[in-house]
Write a structure and sequence with these properties.
With 370 residues, the protein is an alpha/beta fold. The chain folds into three domains: 4-81, Orthogonal Bundle (Arc Repressor Mutant, subunit A), CATH 1.10.10.10; 87-178 and 345-360, Nucleotidyltransferase, domain 5, CATH 3.30.420.40; 188-339, Nucleotidyltransferase, domain 5 (2-Layer Sandwich). It contains 13 helices and 13 strands. It has helices at 4-11, 15-26, 32-39, 43-55, 120-134, 156-166, 176-186, 245-249, 251-258, 266-269, 274-295, 307-322, 344-354; strands at residues 59-63, 77-81, 87-93, 97-103, 109-116, 139-146, 171-175, 195-201, 205-213, 216-223, 299-304, 334-337, 359-360. The chain has a six-stranded mixed β-sheet. Strand 3 (87-93) and strand 4 (97-103) form a beta hairpin. Helix 2 packs across helix 4 (43-55) and helix 11 packs across helix 12. The protein binds zinc ion. Zinc ion binds next to loops.
Length: 370
């Protein structure tokens, strides 16, 4: 009998199979008719593919999403992934902690771990706990999100080497912010903007531009949002530029100058004065205006820390500063807070690994950038 990892490779192989499987995972409850529309496959092809997926235990039938009950006399049938068929694993490496999550095929987090003050040894034992918790359910892909700066507690290459050594399945690595942007896109509905800029506020400020591509994985471009200069007479930044947004508005700068602790959530940041919040929010606003003008994008999602903390730190000032603003193309800049919690990076890493996004971590020649 085939292991599920092999089964996935065996069964989800052609462009059509990949498209159908991705649509079912992304939109549990999707009908066969809707699948045909989204993938541009014929009804016969979709029926055939779904039949094989169901026989392999990857897909099940549930009541259709948005079914109008009583409309045609019987419940319309939708399709959903079998969430117990396999897991993918998301790992997010941050300055002071690590998040790890077992993620179901539909993108839901089944179980998550947070390791504070990590070391390689403690991370190894957490990874072993995760593998034990997965039990009989196989882990078919692993995504490791890394920040763009070094973490103080280990070299990124040692972290990725240790993780890669624990798994037989493919292991990928990518920027934290880009993985979180992937998760944001995964949970968007049809009809939401085709292009958006995702600002990832972790310790620093990063981000990604996202071009949605229907049933295909989105096109993601990592953007160093924090290193847009907004004050030529400002402080020198470690990146070589002066007056970077990151120096003015990032949680790491706020911690250094105002002794707040963002890791404590809303309680840890409540001491900031309105004046400081104004400078911080305005700095982020001007940085976002510069970036979105260059990219000609007018929809921004703020993510990273919990939506509550982000809204408290930046929300009011961003809204006030941008009221009445129009970009050179005449569009207002819409800014929304992420709909996902602070496990977005974990979800994105796991989903991205399934879509094979990121750099493959080769066990023999472990990546050594960062
Ligand atoms: Zn900089």
């Amino acid at each position: 009998m085939l292991e599920v990892g092999d089964l996935l490779n065996e069964i989800v192989q052609t462009r059509g199979e990949r498209a159908v499987f991705r649509c079912i995972r992304k939109t549990p409850g999707i009908s066969r008719v809707e699948l045909c529309k989204q993938t541009e496959l014929t009804s016969a092809a979709v029926t055939q593919i779904v039949k094989r997926f169901m026989a392999a235990g990857l897909v099940r039938e549930i009541p259709a999403k948005n079914a109008i009950v009583g409309n045609i006399g019987r419940t319309r049938i939708g399709l959903a992934p079998m969430d117990t068929a396999y897991f993918s694993l998301g790992v997010v490496v941050r300055r002071h902690d690590i998040q790890v999550g077992l993620v179901e095929p539909s993108g839901k987090v089944a179980q998550a771990w947070r390791l504070v003050a990590p070391t390689i040894e403690r991370l190894a034992s957490t990874v072993d706990d995760v593998i034990r918790a997965a039990g009989d359910i196989p882990i078919v892909a692993v995504g490791v999100g890394l920040p763009t700066f070094a973490v103080p507690w280990a070299a990124a290459s040692d972290i990725t080497a240790m993780i890669a050594s624990r798994f037989a399945c493919p292991v990928y690595s990518f920027h934290n912010g880009s993985y979180a942007a992937l998760a944001e896109e995964w949970f968007m509905e049809d009809g939401e903007p085709d292009r958006f800029f995702y600002v990832f506020i972790g310790s620093g400020i990063g981000g990604a531009s996202v071009l949605r591509a229907g049933y295909e994985p989105p096109v993601i471009t990592c953007i160093e949002a924090g290193h847009v200069g907004i004050d030529p007479h400002g402080e020198q930044c470690f990146c070589g530029n002066r007056g970077c947004v990151e120096l003015m508005a990032s949680p790491a700068s706020l911690e250094a100058y105002y002794h707040i602790n963002i890791d404590l959530g809303i309680e840890g940041v409540k001491g900031l004065s309105e004046n400081v919040k104004k400078v911080v929010g305005e700095s982020l606003a001007y940085g976002l205006v510069s970036i979105t003008n260059v990219l000609n994008i007018h929809y921004v999602v703020l993510g990273g820390y919990s939506p509550e903390v982000l809204d408290y730190l930046y929300g009011d000032t961003l809204r006030q500063t941008l009221t009445g603003y129009r970009n050179p193309f005449g569009h207002p800049l819409t800014i929304v807070t992420s709909r996902l919690g602070d496990l977005a990076g974990v979800q994105g890493a796991a989903l991205g690994a399934q879509d094979q996004i990121g750099t493959v971590i080769d066990r023999n020649a472990v990546l050594s950038y960062w």
